Structure to design on (715 residues):
C-alpha cells in the first residue's frame, strides 16, 4: 500500500491517563481525518506468568496489575477463588470488601475528575499546556484542588483503615477478609462522610456549569451510539460489587438481563488488532462490526433502572433526562456519570459504616480447592472486570483470562477519537488545543492501560520501514 | 568443661569451651546476622551471613560452625564483614525469583528483614530468573522453589525434630533443589507426617500453608526451638 499521499499526526504520549499510549490520525490530501487509532504500547503479560501459581495467590498478584483499581482486581479474583472453593464470604467479610470496593471507586473517580479532567473544564482546553494540570488547578482554584485530593485520600483511607494499606491492600481472602474493622476506625471513616459529600457536590456543580456553558460542544462530543454493559442488582438498580450483567442496545432496549457473570463468554468475544497491545472485545451475538459496546460509569448509568441511594437518585433522574430516558451516548457525559457514581459510593459507604455487623469479628470462612474453574466479576471504576481461572487438581493455575474494562471500551474509544478528530481537525493548521480535545476524548473513558495490557501469546505484530517522505518501503506483519 | 577467655569486638569474655562463636555472641548480646541458623538444630554454615574475622586467620569463618578457642580475637562488625553480608543478601535476591510485593510472606519474611538490615537498596548482580516449580500437591502446604534460599532449615527440622526425613537436597550450584522423598511431589510423600514444622522453620515464603493469604502468614520458628527444649526436660 502506498501511503505517500497521506499525512499522519501522532499524539505521543497521551497525557493525563493511566499508562502509556499514542494516538495516530490519518489525513487525506484535503486535510480531512480519515482514520484514527489509539495505540497502547505498553505490555504486561499477567495472564502468562500467573500460570503455575496457586489460585489463592491470584487476588494479591492480580491486584498488582493496577495501583488505581487494585481492589477491583482483588475482588474479581477472590470471587473466582470462591467459585473454585465453592464457599461464600461471611456477612461482615463481604460487607468490608464491599466498603473497600466503594472506597476505591470514590478514590479513582476523584482522581479521574479532579486531577486529570478538571484542568480542561476549569482552565480551558486551549489554556497553557504547562499549567493544564492539578497544579494549575491548585494555583487558580485552590479549594477545588485540595478537596479533590482529599476525596481521593478518603477512598484510600477506607482501605488503610481496614487492611493497614492504602494501595494494594493485603488480606482480601477467599471466604471473606483477613482483618475485622475496629470501632475506632469505623468512627474515623464516618467522620469523613460530610466533607466527601460536599466535595462531590462541588464537582457535580462544576460539570453541570460546564454543560450549561458549552451545551453544543458537550452534546456533539462523540455521541456515536453503542451498546452498553453493566452490572445491576436484583431490582435493576445500579451495582458495583455484586450483581448480574445487563446489556442494553443504543435505544435502551434490554438485550440480556440478569446474566450470571460466569456466562460472560456466551456474550463477549475478543479480537486482536495489529497496531495495539489492547484487545478489542465485542458483543458476540452482533459480531465485531455492530457489537461495539461500552462499559464504565456512563454504561452503568445507562443500563441501571435506578440508583440505590437518595441523593444519587436525584442526580440520576436528571442524567436520564438528557436523552429522554434513553441511553446517553455523548462521551462527555462520562464525567457526570462518574460523579453520580462517586456520590452514590459515599452514600453507600455511610450506610455500610452504620451496619451493626460491620465490626463483627467473624470475617472469613475457610474452604479448600473443590472446582477446576473460577470466574469472578466486579464493576471496576472503568467498567466490568472479569477474572477467569482454570486450575489443575491441586489448585495450580493452568490458564488465566482477564477481561478488563478499558479493553472493552477499546473499539468505542477508537470511534470517539475519530469523531472528535473529524470535528476539530481540518486542514494544515493544527493547534495544540485541537489535539488536546482529541486526547480528552480518551480521557473521558479514564482508560487504565496498565490494567488492560495483561495478555500474552497470539499478539499480532507489525514492523514498517518508512522512508523520509513517509512512504512505506517494506512491511512485515505477523497476524493471528 | 574447661574455661577459656576470648575477645569479641573488644569485649573480653570468659566462657566454657566446646561452644560456637555464634552461641557465645548471642549469650553476650553481640548481634550477628543469621539465616540458616535455628536454635536447637544442627548448624551447617550454609548461608554465610554470620561470617566473622578471627585474628591470625586469613579467611572469614562462619560463627555458627566455628568453635571458640582460648585467646581467640574475633571481630563481628568490620566493614569487610558488612560488605560480604550485603553481597550475600544481593546474591540471594538475584538467584531466584523473589518478588516481595506478591509474596505470601511479605512483611513476615526473614530474607526481607535481612535486606533491610544490610540496607539493600539495589542489586548489583544480574537476576538469573530461573524457571522454578511450585509444588501444590500437598493438601495443606505449598513449596515454591522460586522463594527458596536453600538454608535447609526444613531439611534439618524434619530429620532432627520430627524424625520423618521427608526433605533432602539434590543437585549443585544454582540447580540445587530441596526435594521431598526421592524427588516426588510433596503430596505423594510416604514419609511426610503433615506436621508443618518445616513450614514454621522456613524463613521465607518458600513453604507456606494453603489456608492463608498475604497478610495472614505468621510463622513461629522459635516454636521449634522451644519444642526441642521441652523435649529435653525430664518431668
Amino acid at each position: 500500500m502506498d501511503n505517500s499521499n497521506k499525512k499522519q499526526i501522532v499524539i505521543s504520549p497521551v497525557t493525563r491517563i493511566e499508562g502509556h499510549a499514542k494516538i495516530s490520525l490519518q489525513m487525506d490530501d484535503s486535510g480531512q481525518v480519515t482514520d484514527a487509532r489509539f495505540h497502547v504500547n505498553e505490555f504486561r503479560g499477567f495472564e502468562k506468568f500467573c500460570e503455575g501459581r496457586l489460585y489463592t495467590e491470584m487476588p494479591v498478584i492480580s491486584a498488582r496489575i493496577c495501583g488505581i483499581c487494585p481492589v477491583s482486581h482483588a475482588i474479581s479474583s477472590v470471587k473466582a477463588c470462591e467459585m473454585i472453593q465453592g464457599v461464600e464470604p461471611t456477612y461482615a467479610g463481604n460487607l468490608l470488601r464491599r466498603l473497600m470496593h466503594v472506597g476505591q471507586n470514590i478514590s479513582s473517580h476523584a482522581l479521574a475528575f479532579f486531577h486529570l479532567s478538571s484542568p480542561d473544564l476549569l482552565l480551558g482546553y486551549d489554556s497553557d499546556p504547562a499549567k493544564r494540570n492539578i497544579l494549575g488547578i491548585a494555583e487558580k482554584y485552590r479549594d477545588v484542588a485540595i478537596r479533590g485530593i482529599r476525596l481521593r485520600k478518603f477512598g484510600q483511607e477506607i482501605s488503610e483503615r481496614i487492611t493497614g494499606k492504602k494501595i494494594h491492600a493485603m488480606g482480601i481472602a477467599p471466604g471473606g477478609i483477613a482483618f475485622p474493622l475496629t470501632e475506632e476506625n469505623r468512627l474515623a471513616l464516618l467522620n469523613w462522610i460530610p466533607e466527601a459529600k460536599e466535595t462531590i457536590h462541588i464537582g457535580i456543580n462544576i460539570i453541570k456549569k460546564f454543560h450549561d456553558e458549552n451545551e453544543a460542544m458537550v452534546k456533539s462530543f462523540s455521541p456515536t451510539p453503542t451498546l452498553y454493559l453493566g452490572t445491576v442488582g436484583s431490582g435493576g438498580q445500579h451495582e458495583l460489587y455484586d450483581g448480574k450483567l445487563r446489556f442494553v442496545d443504543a435505544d435502551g432496549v434490554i438485550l440480556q438481563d440478569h446474566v450470571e457473570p460466569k456466562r460472560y463468554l456466551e456474550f463477549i468475544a475478543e479480537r486482536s488488532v495489529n497496531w495495539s497491545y489492547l484487545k478489542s472485545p465485542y458483543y458476540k451475538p452482533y459480531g465485531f462490526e455492530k457489537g461495539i459496546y461500552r462499559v464504565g460509569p456512563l454504561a452503568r448509568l445507562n443500563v441501571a433502572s435506578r440508583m440505590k441511594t437518595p441523593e444519587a437518585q436525584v442526580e440520576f433522574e436528571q442524567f436520564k433526562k438528557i436523552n429522554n430516558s434513553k441511553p446517553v451516548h455523548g462521551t462527555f457525559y462520562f464525567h457526570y456519570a462518574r460523579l453520580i457514581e462517586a456520590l452514590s459510593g459515599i452514600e453507600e459507604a455511610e450506610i455500610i459504616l452504620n451496619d451493626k455487623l460491620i465490626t463483627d469479628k467473624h470475617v472469613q470462612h475457610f474452604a479448600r480447592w473443590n472446582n477446576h474453574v473460577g470466574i469472578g466479576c466486579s464493576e471496576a471504576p472503568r467498567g466490568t472486570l472479569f477474572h477467569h481461572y482454570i486450575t489443575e487438581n491441586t489448585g495450580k493455575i493452568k490458564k488465566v483470562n482477564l477481561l478488563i474494562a478499558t479493553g472493552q471500551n477499546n473499539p468505542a474509544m477508537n470511534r470517539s477519537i475519530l469523531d472528535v478528530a473529524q470535528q476539530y481537525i481540518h486542514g494544515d493548521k493544527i493547534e495544540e488545543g485541537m489535539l488536546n480535545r482529541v486526547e480528552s476524548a480518551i480521557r473521558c473513558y479514564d482508560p487504565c492501560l496498565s490494567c488492560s495490557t495483561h495478555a500474552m501469546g497470539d499478539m499480532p505484530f507489525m514492523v514498517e520501514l518508512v522512508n523520509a517522505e513517509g512512504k512505506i518501503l517494506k512491511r512485515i506483519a505477523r497476524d493471528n | 568443661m574447661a574455661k577459656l577467655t576470648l575477645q569479641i569486638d573488644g569485649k573480653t569474655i570468659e566462657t566454657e569451651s566446646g561452644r560456637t562463636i555464634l552461641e557465645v555472641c548471642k549469650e553476650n548480646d553481640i548481634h550477628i546476622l543469621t539465616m540458616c541458623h535455628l536454635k536447637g538444630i544442627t548448624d551447617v554454615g550454609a548461608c554465610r551471613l554470620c561470617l566473622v574475622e578471627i585474628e591470625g586467620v586469613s579467611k572469614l569463618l562462619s560463627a555458627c560452625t566455628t568453635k571458640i578457642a582460648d585467646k581467640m580475637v574475633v571481630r563481628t562488625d568490620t566493614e569487610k564483614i558488612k560488605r560480604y553480608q550485603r553481597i550475600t543478601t544481593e546474591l540471594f535476591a538475584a538467584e531466584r525469583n523473589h518478588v516481595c510485593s506478591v509474596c505470601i510472606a511479605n512483611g513476615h519474611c526473614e530474607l526481607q528483614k535481612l535486606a533491610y538490615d544490610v540496607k539493600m537498596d539495589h542489586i548489583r548482580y544480574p537476576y538469573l530468573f530461573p524457571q522454578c516449580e511450585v509444588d501444590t500437591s500437598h493438601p495443606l502446604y505449598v513449596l515454591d522453589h522460586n522463594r527458596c534460599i536453600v538454608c535447609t532449615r526444613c531439611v534439618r527440622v524434619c530429620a532432627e525434630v520430627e524424625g520423618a526425613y521427608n526433605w533432602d537436597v539434590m543437585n549443585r550450584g544454582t540447580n540445587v533443589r530441596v526435594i521431598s522423598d526421592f524427588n516426588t511431589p510433596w503430596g505423594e510423600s510416604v514419609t511426610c507426617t503433615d506436621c508443618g514444622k518445616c513450614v514454621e522453620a522456613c524463613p521465607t515464603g518458600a513453604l507456606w500453608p494453603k489456608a492463608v493469604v498475604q497478610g495472614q502468614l505468621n510463622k513461629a520458628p522459635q516454636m521449634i526451638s522451644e519444642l526441642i527444649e521441652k523435649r529435653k526436660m525430664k518431668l
Q: What stands out?
A: Confidence is low (pLDDT under 50) at residues 453-468, 473-480 of chain A. Residues 256 and 447 of chain A are 25 Å apart (CA to CA). Chain A touches chain B through 26 residues (CB under 8 Å).
